[in-house]
Structures are given as C-alpha cells and as structure tokens.
Write a structure and sequence with these properties.
Layout: H1 2-6, H2 14-26, E1 33-35, E2 50-51, E3 54-55, H3 58-74, E4 80-82, H4 83-93, H5 101-104, H6 114-120
Length: 123
Amino acid sequence: MLCLKGFQGYGYDESFVENMILINSERKLPQTTVSICECADDICSSCPNLVDGICEDKTQNERIVSMDEEVLKKLNGTKECNSIELFEKIDEIFSTKESVSKICFDCKWSEKCLFYQKLSNNR
C-alpha cells in the first residue's frame, strides 16, 4: 500500500508497471474496496519474480514479508475497507520518515518513490 502512494511508473517490467498503474487508479475511486491479505496479492501477481506465490529470491521474500507485517501491525487487523478511507488512515499512520523506517529504509526504489521523498521532507 505504501508503494502505491509513491508509485510513478517504474517497475520490474512493462507488465508489472501496467498492473501498478491500473491498481493505483482503482484505489483512488470512492467505490473501491480493498481486501488486505498476508500473501501474494494483486500487486504481486504481475511481478516477474513471483514463483509459486513467493518471491524467487528467498532473502527478498523474507524482506517483503517483514515489510508487509510492519504495515499490517499498524493497521490493527484491518482486513477489508474502503480504499479512500484506508489510504487516509495510511497517511495518518505513516506521516514521517521514522514511521516507515523498518519498512522503507533499505528499499531499492526509495530514491524514486514520491511517498518516501515526501516523508524525507517531513522530518
């Protein structure tokens, strides 16, 4: 979810980017409901590194799972909600660079991520 906030068209390949554009557009619609899961989701579905439901790089998979767990902990068990409300909640919870330190600190996309760059300015 945090990656959607900072997405600006970069990705692993064309299919992944097209999928991110679609999901990012849909999450901004008031009628969109988001179901939060603890597995490969709609974003992961087009990742070229996804093999049998996990990232083919075991170290990267562990990192992704850890990042997702940090976000889910802060959402306090939210499993399904309106997308607009969810992303407003995300803006409240993740409003400083420190609030995402365990999640975004070592991300290879941080230099291109609009969300992370905005937080860097909110110290």
